[in-house]
Amino acid sequence: MSHxxxxxxxxxxxxxxxxxxxxxxxxxxxxxxxxxxxxDAAMLWQALRDNNEVWTYISSAxxxxxxxxxxxxxxxxxxxxxxxxxxxxxxxxRAIGLLALMAIRPDMRVVEIGSIVYSPALxxxxxxxxxxxxxxxxxxETLGYRRYEWKCNSFNAASRRAALRYGFTFExxxxxxxxxxxxxxxxxxxxxxxxxxPARKANFERWLAPENFDGEGRQRVGxxxxxxx
Amino acid sequence: MTDSEPHPQTGQPVGLPVDKxxxxxxxxxxxxxxxxxxxxxxxxxxxxxLWAAFAGHDHVWTYIxxxxxxxxxxxxxxxxxxRAAADDPYAYAIIDxxxxxxxxxxxxxxxxxxxxxEVGHVLYSPALxxxxxxxxxxxxxxxxxxETLGYRRHEWKCDANNAASRRAAMRYGFTYExxxxxxxxxxxxxxxxxxxxxxxxxxPARKRNFERWLQPENFDxxxxxxxxxxxxxxxQA
Lengths: 229, 237
Description:
By secondary structure, chain A is an alpha+beta fold. Chain A is 30% helix and 28% strand. Chain A has a single domain, classed as Gcn5-related N-acetyltransferase (GNAT) (Aminopeptidase), CATH 3.40.630.30. By secondary structure, chain B is α+β, with helices and mostly antiparallel strands. Chain B has one domain (24-236): Aminopeptidase, CATH 3.40.630.30. Chain B has helices spanning 47-54, 73-85, 132-149, 163-172, 203-214, 229-236, and strands spanning 4-6, 13-15, 32-33, 37-41, 90-96, 101-111, 116-124, 153-159, 175-186, 189-199. Chain B starts with a strand and ends with a helix.
């Protein structure tokens, strides 16, 4: 039987994507750099301590009882190729967030952005959005991925809203996908494709442009509105 | 919609505690006996039967992401030895009532700590397709996964273009969950994946329907089904 009677997808460039590396991605509002526990641990602890809610939907870690336990976790994280962790540094060089490229499948040209821990100092700031722009650009343009995934606990409403705002497309919910911290977890899945990236990129850049913020730093056009249009 | 409760410390909605968080067991070299045949651990002793069943039917390999088709027994044999030796995917031969291997099936992406497993690499030769043993195979494996091994999520995925596999998943009582776009590059081509699952809480009803469908009274003297499994499962959805 030929492919004429069994539909199959189009041929694609099968050259594998590259694995993420220890880059520093400089933006207008800050920098995304390879996690460096010696540089980052104390600053991250200051930003995250007393904010245990940032760990609720992280399946494998946190909250941490003290800085020593948190630092030990960072030191262990940085030994891994997957997940591959980056720190979010603001313009003053303060480490205020953490995230990773993970589930890295260069042969399939698929990668996920996850383990996103944004401290209150980073949440709802232009740098929070710029971080997503910088890493998506790196994944698509530098590393050569064609599917960029986002997943979260289905009850994590903020993460689901964020994924849609950044221009990911909802694909479905895996029921009973994990047992995390002793609880049943359903996982919501989203993706962005290489073919979609040019339009998403244009919207990120339009949103991040200085002209998009008024004298008080308030956005003029919402990124959600841009991506919905 | 799945139930949630407020997190005891933060108040954010989270899933309910799982009653049993001990990991599920890994699949093992069991023989699962049915009415129409049996499953047993795949081994190189099944090579000749399987080659006879698959040879000349290259279309069974089209939607298998990496493997096949094979030009000769000499090419097929090392592949089958590799498939038989792997822990994940963990393969079972499907043996008919006359002791012939007519297909194989695997359990894969085995995640005991999350109690999640997938049934896949479903290689049914024409001699097995659309037979009671084809369905019984899925019943025996699902029963093993839920009742013996202790999984709570049994997954099925396929190339989104594979209409027969999508129909089969629904007929067996899996629930469609979504399609991952550009999920793989399979044999040089783009592959979107359609995802399905069956849950431990759904298994008792699915099991009853399998058993009702598989019993001899459900077939007329020409071997035609009286009740359809797809209809039985659709009635309960």
